[in-house]
Design a protein that fits this description.
This is Transposase. This protein is mainly alpha-helical and 80 residues long. It has one domain. Helices cover 42% and strands 0% of the residues. The protein is globular and about 45 Å long.
Length: 80
């Protein structure tokens, strides 16, 4: 019997937390045997993943420091 892995918010949040360089869904799909790039893309289009959801999942891992900064960059660069 073939077991099909279900892609969830937890799967995506864990990927974002563990990936150090490449955050693309293509990279994620390459690391999941039973989940395709198209399946992840469809999931992200229909699921509401808010900044609050991400913050709620990582805030306990952040150590406050008067000299520290958190920088969010959501820019997208065109492929050359």
């Amino acid at each position: 019997m073939l077991t099909v892995m279900r892609f969830t918010k937890l799967s995506y949040c864990q990927y974002l937390l563990s990936s150090q360089i490449n955050y693309t869904i293509t990279n994620l799909a390459e690391h999941l045997e039973s989940i395709s790039h198209d399946a992840i893309n469809y999931y992200l289009k229909r699921e509401k993943l808010t900044p609050r959801l991400l913050w709620d999942n990582v805030k306990d891992l952040v150590e406050p420091d008067d000299n520290g900064y958190i920088i969010f960059d959501d820019s997208v660069l065109d492929k050359i």
